[in-house]
């Protein structure tokens, strides 16, 4: 039976959980995730976990944060004066905004705290700093 290797397009069903068991994403009940191994379209640890699997294989793999969404960086948390947020934009904890840096690069941020005077924005990926456990089932290669 063939094994998944770099360059192969694979289809997998997966369930991702945090260390406390909370499910943060799953393809179960929907279409399998399809991607090319080595393309960089999924986190590095997930690709490594699928390499060498054969169709029908299942495994559970814990991926450390460095091979997932990276470490959490405090310097990516920004506190801005509330007056800097345009009044037409909704400002709610958990809401997402985009900020534009000098040079034009756009960065997605999540609002994590709001006071009368300030808004706290976090540019870290929501899963940064988290070790993630995935149940992976390889559906098909090719």
Name the beta content range: 35-45%
Which class best fits the helix and strand makeup? mainly beta
Radius of gyration computed on alpha carbons: 19 Å
Q: Can you identify the CATH class of the largest domain?
A: Alpha Beta
Biggest sheet character: 5 strands, antiparallel
What ranges have pLDDT less than 50 throughout 5 or more consecutive residues? none
Number of domains: 2
CATH architecture of the largest domain: Roll
| Record field, number of beta strands | 9
Helix content: under 10%
**Under CATH, the topology of the largest domain is which?**
Chitinase A, domain 3
Count of alpha and pi helical runs: 1
Termini separation comes to 13 Å
Overall mean confidence score, pLDDT: 95
The topology string of helices and strands comes to EEEHEEEEEE
Net shape? elongated
Could you provide a short overview of the structure?
The chain has 142 residues and is mainly beta. The chain has 1 helix and 9 strands; from the N terminus they run βββαββββββ.
How would you characterize the overall build of this protein?
The protein has 142 residues and is mainly beta. It has 2 domains: 9-70 and 127-141, Chitinase A, domain 3; 74-122, Beta Barrel (Thrombin, subunit H). Helices cover 5% and strands 40% of the residues. The chain has 1 helix and 9 strands. The two termini are 13 Å apart.
